[in-house]
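Practice problem: predict the structure.
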Amino acid sequence: MKNLYQICYQICFLLAVVFGLTLAGYAQTNIIEDQTNWPTGDWTAVSTNPPQQNLPTSSAWYAGTHTLLNGTNGTLVAGYLGGSSFTWWTYFAPSNAPVTLSPGNTMQVTVNFMVYGVGVQNANRHLRIGLLYSGTNQDLADNSTAREAGLVGYCQNMNFGTTFGLAPFSLAACTNVNNSDAILAATADQYSFGHSGGGTTNDPGFMDGVPYTLIMSISETNTNSIAITTTVLGTSFLNGTNITFTETDTNFDYTNYDTFCMRVNDGTTTATNFTFTSFQVETFPTVPPAPIQITSVQKLAPGSIVLTWTSTSGNTYSVYKTNLLSAPVGTWPVIVTGYPAGGAAGSSLSYTDTTATATSGFYRVSSP
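Answer:
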C-alpha cells in the first residue's frame, strides 16, 4: 500500500500539470526603437543643431561629408552631394547598454523607404547595410569621420539598380580592423562569407517612388551560431513581393549591437536619394516557446522530488512551489529562476527540488 506522502504527491502532480498548462509564460516582443517622424531640419549640422537621442521614439542620425540628411515632412531624406560616397548611421542603443542576443532570440531592424534616381544595371554591390556594435558610440561629437576601426557586426553588401547585374546579396562580417578607413568603405576590411543570393542577373530590381521595406534580422540559433537574414519587400521585384537571403555565421558569433549604418558608394550605381518613413528595432523569441506542460513528478527519496516539463531550446525557466494551494499565485515562493544557465538544450527539462519535506506540495513553471 502506498504511503500518504506518495499519494499526496500524485494528487499534486495532477494539479501541477494543470498549472503548467494555464500559467505558461511567453517572452514578449521588446521594442528598442520605433521612429516614424523626423523633425524638419538639417540633420548634418551636428555642431549647431545636435539631434536628440530620445529612445524608443527616436534616435540621433548622422551623415558623412558627402551626404545631405534632412527631416522633410516627417521623413528623413538622405541625398547625394557628389564625391566618393554618402553615408548615414544611427545609434539605436546606448554605448554602455547594447542590444544583446541570447540563444533562441532575434533582433530585427525594419526600415520603410523609397528611392529616387535609381541607377541602371551594374555588377557592383555598392549599397552596404550594417548592423554593428561600436561600444563607444564613437562619432557623437564629429559626424563626418565614422571609422571602421573598432566596429564589429555584419554588413550586407547589395547590388542596386533597375535590374540586377548579379545576385543582389552577399554578406560580410566587420571584424574590428585596425585602420582608419571610413565605415563600410572597403570590402577588404571585412570577412566575406563567399556566398550570394536573393536573385540573379537581369532580375527586375528597384524603381523610383515605389515603397520598399528592408527587414534585416539577426538570430542566435544556438551558442556560436548566428543566422542573418536580409529581406526587401517591394512590388518591382521578379515575383512582385520580395528578395531575400540568409547566411549563417559560426566563426564570430557577434551578439552585441548598437549601430545601424547605410553606405552608398555613389549615386550612379545605386540611387541619388533615399527617403525613410519609419525605422524600427525590436527583439523577440526566434521560435515562440511552446506551452509549458509538467510531464512528471517523481520522488527520489524523502525530501527530494524531480519535476520534469516540456521546454523550448534556449529558454530559461522559473519554478515556484507552495504547500498551500489556496495561496494567491503571485505569492508562491520561487525555488529556482534563470534555470538552466545558458538556456534549455532540448524539448524536456528536469529540476530536482531537495526541499520537498512537507506532506504536500504544489508546483508551477514559467518562462522567462
